[in-house]
């Protein structure tokens, strides 16, 4: 298998790693970088559990090659908290019960973060659209939507 040097920034840290040309971004983050917050759910781009931000935009890491992220900025759930303090979205998901089992939560939070960076005051419909690619089997999504709304209010 051919390998090349991948240069990118992960959660503010510049990295250079030898990676296989066919390595998926989710595998790179979990296996090479050691960040296990990004989850592998469906292995096919259907559930959103693997959502990370690439240059500030949500991307499904289970269907993205790591090499496609060369010279880009990757943000994972581990990078959301700053100086040991939960981000507004993390705090809101916790306080408003936006997560149940928690498996989908990292992807939900990263997708919501991408939305709130583009639109600080989204409507319910805009939140639903932004999270439409993220599946949760534990909730009815009401608490997730409320969590995003509350974080938007706190962030603005």
Which helices and strands, and how do they pair?
Layout: E1 3-10, E2 13-20, H1 25-33, E3 51-54, E4 57-60, E5 73-75, H2 88-95, H3 105-118, H4 124-130, H5 142-155
Parallel strand pairs: 1-5
Antiparallel strand pairs: 1-2, 3-4, 3-5
CATH architectural grouping of the largest domain: Roll
Which strand-content bin applies to the residues?
A: 15-25%
The number of helical segments is: 5
The proportion of residues forming helix, as a percent range, comes to 25-40%
Distance from N terminus to C terminus (CA atoms, Å) equals 48 Å
Please state the overall shape, judged from the principal axes of the Cα atoms: globular
Sequence of strands across the biggest β-sheet: 2-1-5-3-4
CATH class of the largest domain: Alpha Beta
Give me the strand/helix succession: EEHEEEHHHH
Q: CATH superfamily of the largest domain, please?
A: Beta-grasp domain
Structural class: alpha+beta
- Spans where pLDDT lies below 50 across 5 or more residues: none
Q: Main sheet? A: 5 strands, mixed
Number of domains: 2
Q: Indicate the mean pLDDT.
A: 96
Count every beta strand, where a strand is a DSSP E run of 2 or more residues: 5
Instruction: Output the radius of gyration.
Output: 15 Å
């Amino acid at each position: 298998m051919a390998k090349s040097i991948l240069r990118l920034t992960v959660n503010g840290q510049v990295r250079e790693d030898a990676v296989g040309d066919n390595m998926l971004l989710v595998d790179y983050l979990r296996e090479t970088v050691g960040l296990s917050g990004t989850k592998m759910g469906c292995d096919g781009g259907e559930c959103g559990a693997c959502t990370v931000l690439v240059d500030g935009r949500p991307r499904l890491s289970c269907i993205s090659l790591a090499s496609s992220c060369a010279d880009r900025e990757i943000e994972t759930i581990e990078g959301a908290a700053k100086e040991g303090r939960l981000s507004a979205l993390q705090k809101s998901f916790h306080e408003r019960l936006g997560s149940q089992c928690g498996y989908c939560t990292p992807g939900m939070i990263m997708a919501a973060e991408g939305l709130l960076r583009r639109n600080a005051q989204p409507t319910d419909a805009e939140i639903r659209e932004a999270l439409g690619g993220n599946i949760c089997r534990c909730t009815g999504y009401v608490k997730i939507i409320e969590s995003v709304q509350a974080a938007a209010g706190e962030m603005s």
